[in-house]
Amino acid sequence: MYSRTMLKVRTLSNNLKMYGSTSSNFVNVSVNDKSGVAIVTMQREPVNSLNLELITQLKTALSDLERNKCRGMILTSASKSVFSAGLDIMEMYKPNQERVRNFWLSLQDLWMTLYGCSYPSVAAINGHSPAGGCLLSMSCEYRIMLPNFTIGLNETKLGIIAPSWFVATMKNTIGFRKAEMALTLGFLFTTEEALKVGLIDEVASSKEDAIAKADKFIGQFAKIPPQPRTISKLMLRSKDIETLRKTKEQDLQAFLQVVNDPKTQKGLELYLESLKQRKA
Ligand SMILES: CC/C=C\CC/C=C/CC(=O)SCCNC(=O)CCNC(=O)[C@H](O)C(C)(C)COP(=O)(O)OP(=O)(O)OC[C@H]1O[C@@H](n2cnc3c(N)ncnc32)[C@H](O)[C@@H]1OP(=O)(O)O
Prior knowledge:
Elements: E1 2-3, H1 14-18, E2 27-32, E3 37-42, H2 52-67, E4 72-77, H3 89-92, H4 97-115, E5 121-125, E6 129-130, H5 132-139, E7 142-145, E8 150-152, H6 164-174, H7 176-185, E9 189-190, H8 191-197, E10 202-203, H9 207-219, H10 226-259, H11 262-277
Parallel strand pairs: 3-4, 4-5, 5-7, 6-8, 7-10
Antiparallel strand pairs: 1-2, 2-3, 8-9
Bound molecules: ligand LP6JUW53.
The site of ligand LP6JUW53 has 30 residues, from α3, α10 and α11.
């Protein structure tokens, strides 16, 4: 039902050429010929950690869908157990200064594009979704998750602080009180807990079921004129988008200061080691 050829995702932006990246394709876009709904699949093995290339390719894919006036977008993962492990810690550990700067600016850009896209957006969360993975999910309008996975903004557990726009997105999704509890604890919710707290909207039994439920959600907008729909969405979301747009440089400088702090570097080193030791 979904043809893989209708939309061509540009995999090499100028940014990537500048950093001499390979042309690996970390994002697949397939569009349902009948409904016009696109499935955007992250496919950066093993855990879809968000490095500069994946972030840039996602942003390009979402902008292409906007230009092509797609009817709806479902964001999902090619992995069977991870939606996205969040930001690629290797981008922040002993970083190249020009690259890490570009990494953060690209992340800001991706969030503003996804959070403010005119088309209906659904996250089909078919695996764990910590930190940046949770941000991507929350930036969509609707979330459907498979059982036995976890989702949340766990930054404080790592000794780091979620940026203000991550916080705003969570507050807008689950409300002040629940966001405060979740953020301060760095809480990772199970699927069942996420449903209870309103972090997700539905539980699906399989990826196919999640896609079917997402199609059904998007289908509801077939009879709603697109312009009033988009304006209503943006009335709710544009304040936070504009805040980041106006403070992009400040936000970047705050990130660079934290990332270049030797204490942060030590923390990231220990965290990377702990991830590797989990396997041993
Ligand atoms: C200084 C920064 C200041 C401000 C920024 C604030 C914002 C931060 C937002 C973020 O997104 S920070 C990233 C937070 N992410 C996490 O805490 C998730 C860490 N990963 C996991 O918990 C698990 O990997 C998983 C539950 C997602 C999946 O578990 P599993 O399927 O068992 O896979 P493995 O743990 O074996 O991982 C496979 C492989 O991938 C590496 N890896 C995992 N996550 C990341 C990551 N976020 N960045 C880079 N690499 C990651 C892991 O080390 C393994 O590598 P091997 O070489 O051992 O195969």
